[in-house]
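User: structure tokens for this one?
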Amino acid sequence: MQWTLVVPLKPLAQAKSRLSDTADDGLRPGLALAFAQDTVAAALACPAVRGVVVVTDDVPAGRALAALGAGVVPDEPRAGLNAALAHGAALVRARHPAGAVAALNADLPALRPEELARVLDTATAFPRAFLSDAAGTGTTLLSAAPGQELLPRFGVGSRARHRASGAVELRPDGVDSVRQDVDTGEDLRAALALGVGPRTAAAAARLLIPGQ
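Assistant:
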């Protein structure tokens, strides 16, 4: 089964405020873009992925991600993360009515194509499924098989909300890179320990992070 991934990205100036303990206002936008670029590049290298659609109103970020091969669409609802994901999924389904679609976080800088393929392969067995984040309370990926609505429930406590919505929790082994999103300095250190993509590595080199 081939998947189209929907990746949401808020305007970079507003992104990653919880990284203020590690990166100042001048560095966070560049970090957020680097995370998204490494995420999208790894996703496009996954053999199970037909394409990636980024939903964003940040024009420079959109150009940078389009240069990697992603499709970029504006966040027309402008009503938050879940509305943006539902909008992106609807556009994907308009083009590929019988296609499988999944939402993927934009902040997975250690993402490995082979680990993403393992998650998506496991997801093919279920109408809707999700993968929890490394912290165990959030979600990094939500999938919907052909003919199924995505019904995103991202945000604080999304693991419980996705489970309550009827999505099956995926528990494949060896997919740490798909679970390690980055919201805090501690998350970034964990991602760096896994091994991040080249853009994040370059951006993080400008930070003073203990343990690097």
